[in-house]
C-alpha cells in the first residue's frame, strides 16, 4: 500500500480530541503514530482539513473529533502524536485551495509504532502576488479559528458572534464570542475574530462587521425596525455593512441609501455539497431564464450586472456560511489585492477600491496594464481603446472556459485549451464610451456551480459613468413589487421606498440625458 495514503488516514481515525500540538489517543489504542504534515518546499508544518470515511463508503462520525469538526470534516495540526485503533479507512487531506488534495486509503493493524512525514504540494501562492483570502460569512468558534484559517489558507475571517432573527438577538455559538488565541502560531499574520453580527429580516439579510470583539449585541433592534434603520444604527456604531445576498427584497432601498460597503455575490446558498433553489427573503427569479442548479447564482450575478450598468460601483465579496451549513470554512472566498503589507484595515481598503475576486474554485488573478480590478480608465470622446487582460489562473478542478463580461453581456468566451495555446492571452475588449468589464471562469464540475468572477474594471468618458435606462428601470420595477408586498411582508417603510424611488428616478433622468 502507498505509504502516503496509509499515513494520512491513520491520522484521522486516531482523534477523539485534538490538541494543537501534543499526544492524542483513543480509548485502548492499538499503537502510536508520530505524524508530521509539511509544505513540500518550505518543510514547515502545515495544518490540514481531513475528510474521512470507513471502508465500503460507511460514514465516519466526526463530532468530537479534531478541531472544528463539522459535517464530514475536521482539522489536524502540522505535528501530532496519535494513539490508533484497528480499521480500514478512506481519506482526503486539504490545505486550502492553493495545495493539491491528498487522498487514498489505509489499514491500521495492532502494535503500530511509527513516525511518518506527509508532504502537501502547493501549486499557487496568491499571497506572494499580493492577493489575500477572506470568508465574510462563517459561524465558527473563535477558539478554533487559527488552525482552521491556516488549514484553509485564509487571511481574514470575522466569524458571526450574534444572529438577529424572529425579533431577538441570539448568540451564534457557545464559544464563538471568546477571543482568538493570538499566541497561536497559526494566528500569526492573520486577522481573525468574532466581530460580525448577522441580521435576518423579511426584506433581506445583512452582515455587520465591527473592528472589535462583539461580546454583546452591537445595538438594540426594535421589533418593527426597518432594514435601513438597522443599517443606520450599524453605521453609527462604526460597523461595515454588507448585503448578505444580492436578491434581498430591500436591496434597491439599501443601494439608494449609499450605505453598503459590499455585496455578497457568492453566498451561503451556494454550498460545498449543493445549491439552494431560492432565497427565502429575496426576490424570486424567473426559472425560464435562470433554470437548474446554477439558476439562483446566475440570477444574483444578473442583478449585480444591472447595478453596475446603473452606475453603482460596489465590490462583490463571498461567504461560505460555514457553521450555518456544513461547508468548510472558505468554501466561498474573497481574494483582495493588497499592494502593501496585509492587515484587516488594508484588506477592507482593497474592497473599497474594488480590488476583489470571488471564487469557490478557480484562482483567477487579472491585471490590465499592471492594474487590479476597480481601476477606472479614461476614454476620450471619439476615441476607441482596446484593453488587454493579463491573467494568472490555477484550479484544482479543470476550468472549462473563460468569459469576458462587458456591460453585463458575454463579449468573448474562450475555451481553456485555446487560451493556453495563445500563451495565456485573452482577446482585447474595446470601448469608445463609458462602461465596465470583468472576467468569469467556470469549471467542469457538474454537481454545483463552481466559478470565479473578478470585480469590474471601469471605463469612463467625459460624459461620466455608464447609466443604462433598462437597468435603472429594472430596479424601479423592483421597488413597485416591494411596495405591493406591503409593510407586513417587507422591512422597508413606504417612506423609505419612495425616497429610494426618487433616487432611482434621478438616475433615470441622468440616463435619458446621455
What does this structure look like?
The chain has helices spanning 3-13, 145-152, 227-236, 251-257, 295-309, 344-353, 416-421, 469-485, 494-513, and strands at residues 23-25, 31-39, 48-54, 67-70, 73-76, 79-84, 87-94, 102-108, 113-120, 131-135, 156-165, 168-171, 191-201, 204-209, 240-243, 262-266, 316-318, 333-337, 356-359, 363-367, 376-378, 385-387, 390-394, 399-406, 409-415, 429-431, 435-443, 451-454, 457-460. The chain has 514 residues and is of the alpha+beta class. Helix 8 (469-485) packs antiparallel against helix 9 (494-513). The longest helix is centred in the C-terminal third of the chain and has 20 residues, at 494-513. It is globular and about 80 Å long. Residues 1-26 have low confidence and may be disordered.
Outline of the structure:
This protein is α+β, with helices and mostly antiparallel strands and 514 residues long.
Overall 3D form: globular
Oligomer: single chain
Largest sheet: 16 strands, mixed
Q: What is the CATH architecture assignment of the largest domain?
A: Alpha-Beta Barrel
CATH fold name of the largest domain: TIM Barrel
Average pLDDT works out at 86
Which radius of gyration do the C-alpha atoms yield? 24 Å
Number of strands: 29
Structural class: alpha+beta
Terminal-residue CA separation: 70 Å
Fraction of residues in β-strands: 25-35%
In total, the number of domains comes to 4
Helix content estimate: 10-25%
Total of DSSP H or I helical runs spanning 4+ residues: 9
Unreliable spans: 1-26
Q: Mind telling me the CATH class of the largest domain?
A: Alpha Beta
